[in-house]
Design brief:
This protein is α/β, with parallel strands linked by helices. About 25% of the residues lie in helices and about 25% in strands.
């Protein structure tokens, strides 16, 4: 098995080495990651300039582009045979609820699915400094169990690991995406010359406390695994709309 390892925190993230350690028993791991932080880039592609790819060591490359660029490089850049699995992470911070639509980490896993292989995104729910070792062990255990059952080729799993010692984890829960409460999303400030400027992000996200969601699971001390599908069409509404008699 050929496993593509990528992220959106950049090639210098210590999480890459830890994930490489736990994924290596499953096959050949090739790391292709952005040369700098590319958080919240979502599914962005670099179309206005050429990409630069640098081989840092055997099976480790940096790309001066987005996480999605990195996955495309793996499949179409002739660096290696196309991977059989894309693993993205471990992100330094959560990727839950609606934030998966902004996340470069999740976007890289999605791109793997779009290229025809399974994708797994993993995040550690903390902004504190960490070495990612225990989180990587946890992700590796989940990946091992998933691989033992076989992965559908268009499957995407989004994993969020609570920031607590492994011995204190209560288990794994299969969850759905939660709902974020958007407060202080755009923060207005004033610069020394009296001109307004704005920061996107504001305070740490607040989530609605609903059972069965990724947020509630992590809050309760469980590893959250959310299976996601890329088919966004509302089939029931589509069928209903057939009888609306819409005209141009």
């Amino acid at each position: 098995m050929r496993i593509l390892l990528t992220n959106d925190d950049g090639i210098a993230s210590p999480a890459l080495a830890q994930l490489r350690r736990v994924l290596s028993p499953f096959g050949r791991v090739i790391t292709i990651a952005p040369d700098r932080n590319q958080s919240a880039m979502s599914q962005a592609l670099t179309l206005s300039r050429p990409l630069r790819i640098h081989e840092l060591e055997e099976d480790v490359y940096s790309v001066d582009g987005t996480p999605t660029d990195c996955v495309l490089v793996a499949f179409h850049g002739k660096i290696l045979e196309p991977p059989d699995l894309v693993v993205s992470g471990i992100n330094h911070g959560p990727n839950m609820g609606e934030d998966v639509f902004y996340s470069g980490t999740v976007a890289a896993a999605i791109e793997g699915v779009l290229q025809g292989v399974p994708g797994i995104a993993a995040s550690l729910v903390t902004r504190q400094q960490t070495d990612f070792r225990e989180a990587a062990d946890t992700v590796g255990n989940v990946v091992r169990q998933v691989l033992s059952r076989g992965l559908m080729r268009r499957l995407l799993l989004n994993i969020n690991v609570p920031h607590r010692p492994a011995a204190e984890l209560k288990g794994v829960q299969i969850t759905r995406l939660g709902t974020r409460v958007y407060e202080d999303t755009l923060v207005r400030k004033v610069d020394p010359r009296g001109r307004d400027y704005y920061w996107v992000g504001g305070e740490d996200p607040v989530w609605q406390p609903h059972e069965g969601t990724d947020f509630q699971s992590v809050h309760d001390g469980f590893v959250s695994v959310t299976p996601m599908q890329l088919e966004l069409t509302d089939q029931a509404l589509r069928a209903d709309m057939q009888g609306w008699g819409l005209t141009p």
